[in-house]
Structure formats: structure tokens, C-alpha cells
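pasting input
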Amino acid sequence: DVKVTQSSRYLVKRTGEKVFLECVQDMDHENMFWYRQDPGLGLRLIYFSYDVKMKEKGDIPEGYSVSREKKERFSLILESASTNQTSMYLCASSPGQGIGYGYTFGSGTRLTVV
Amino acid sequence: KNEVEQSPQNLTAQEGEFITINCSYSVGISALHWLQQHPGGGIVSLFMLSSGKKKHGRLIATINIQEKHSSLHITASHPRDSAVYICAVRSSGNQFYFGTGTSLTVIP
């Protein structure tokens, strides 16, 4: 069964902390994505990766960085957490760059920055 | 302006009702997805469409490429269908755009 696993369901961090959100997929997918979801704004793409050690900025990359050292793992890093980064974070993966490929989401991490 | 617009934003239905959620988009697309998000956050991909119609159980998704419009229908709705339904498109330029979702509540 296709699976995308996010390491934490709920996280509470303090302003200024460095935060790591981990995502692992077991489907050998090339593409991995990080989104945040906020009420009234829907899903917004933060960063994505089409291959190991490759990353591309999405719509809202400011305040975030990512790491993809291995194909199955895509990490989202908040260098210095701020309260406006309180959100639901969703990881997704998909097989290949071709048109029409579907993708699979993780169950999400609800991050609160206090 | 959002590239993907959904309507309605909120929908309450009685169990057994036929439900329709609409999605309009403004970009050229390679595929359109309907996603279901349950309370707690997990998202499931329901359909991926590039033309025509797909059916899975009580769920039906249609797309009209010329009109840039898609609908998700739920027949014989049930309380377990209560969720947020999100329309998402993958543009011809390989960008992803998401609607803000339709929150459905089905009352027993």
C-alpha cells in the first residue's frame, strides 16, 4: 500500500527555534512536495524536489528550506520559527514528471509556534 | 485571483441527498484532481481526470475541458462523506494550483 509518512502529527515550538519536519515515502517516487494549508487560503506549495539533492522553490518559500539527501526522504526546515508559520504542513509524493501523474499525501503535521 | 475556484465553500446535506461540488479553473491543465481531507488532516486522492468522467462507488467526477469546469457528485450521501473536498489542477506548465476546498457536512 502506497505510503507517505510524516514524523509528527502535532508539534509545538517556540519562536526562534529551528524546526525539522520529516517526510518519508516508500514508493520510490521521484517527486516530493511540501505544502502548508491555512483556512481560507487552501494548499500552498512551499518547496518541491524532482530528484535527490534537487530542490525548487514553490509559491511561498520564504522562511523555509528543504533537504533531500535520499530519494525517500524530504525534510522541511524552518530556520527560525515564527508565529506566522503556525499551520498545517502536508507532504506529498508522485511518480515522475510526466503529465497527469497523481500524488499521495501524508497525514499532515499541525505545527504551532508560540 | 485564484486560478482554481470552488463552490460552494460550505455545504450541509441530509443523509441520502445527491451532492454536487463545482470547480472552475483558469489555466490550461494536464490533469485535474479531486482530493478528500478528513478532520485530522489526512488527504486522499479521489480522482485524477484529464477528460470525460470517472466513477468510483458513490462518487462521480466529470470534467469539461472546453468550459474549464469539473464537478464532483456524491450519490446517496452518508455522514462518513463529511470532509473537505479540494479541487487541484496540474497546469500545462507543470504548476500545481489548489482550490480552497468545500466543507461538506452530511447530517444523519
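fyi Chain A has no helices and twelve strands.
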